[in-house]
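Morning F.,

Quick status update on the modeling queue. The single chain you submitted on Monday has been processed. Sequence for confirmation:
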Amino acid sequence: MLNDEILRRKEVEKKLVEAKEEAEKASLAKSEFLSIISHEIRTPLNAVIGMGHLLLKNNPRPDQVDNLETLKTSSDNLLVLINDILDFNKIEAGKLDLEIAPFNIKKLIKDIVSANKNGANERENRMALVIDEKVPDYFMGDALRIGQVFNNLVSNAVKFTHRGFISVRIDLQKLKPGSALLHISVHDTGVGIAKENLENIFTPFMQASTSITRQYGGTGLGLAISRRILGLFNSDVMVDSELGKGSKFHFLIELKTVNADEIHLLENDIAGFDLKNKRLLLVEDTLFNVLYATQLLEGWNATVDVAENGQIAVDMTQHTDYDIVLMDLQMPVMDGYTATLKIRGFNQKVPIIALTAAATSDVRDKVLDSGMQDYIVKPFNPSELILKLKKYLN
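Structure tokens below.
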């Protein structure tokens, strides 16, 4: 009888090990699938967003501006959708990391409200932004993630309000030595949420009801991701709502303040940025992305050489001294990781920044392990590229 019990336990343990291995395989397959999908979608989307930016910048005719603004808004919305799906995958895997850097919170919030103005106007909504004058300008934190939470709340308020009013506020709750406690709130007069559905809205892929999905669209991930991101800041999103009378979403967040010596790091004015006398190597195999990046860089007076794969990049860096290399990762003949390892064999100094359409959590580690200094995820906006270039060229 004892032997039978031991055999049964061993059989159960064996099945548990097999189930664990199957689950790990499935998780790996899902991550690989998302990485491939991310790359395949982001590569053309980078060209769409980039070309839209360049066309708006090149003095379009007045009758073209509205069409280009629509293109920009639609491509930005598509990018938000892709980011939500990928970020949820990172959160599930416990691999969503915060990047701490100085940023201007007032500019961040004003830009997000401004980006949502077109959507608000289309739904005949009025918007008001109130920023407490006692709120400091600069903080240390992850501007991308804080902006993502804020954008989710503002865009939801716009989406679920028609011919109404949206109030956006940032108030100083408490100023401490070296930090500040902020209260951020978004109040709308939209459709509101029934009490029994208040918790559903924070469940991944769930919305208040199926009719909401049909009428307003969306993945049901925005609020779930926002709650997880705020959790990384030891905060949470709170909601007060009544069906038919609107909603108020708000949260408290404590951020480190920035001293005057660190503020100069935030100088990212595109108009004043100049790459005169700088020679850059762009390693990229997609023609549209080459056109976008070279026009952007040459607009800042840089000299730009292009390599269409990693092998050509290795050969070119052996014969030319570049100030910086912008390296795509997935290319024919030789990928960016291999090319970087080969370059590091004879050149340890030249900064190499990855330009990648893969946004999964293991990319950063692989980039740094291969010898690159940093990475930018496509599609990228010009100010993000400027900050990286300034960091490594100075």
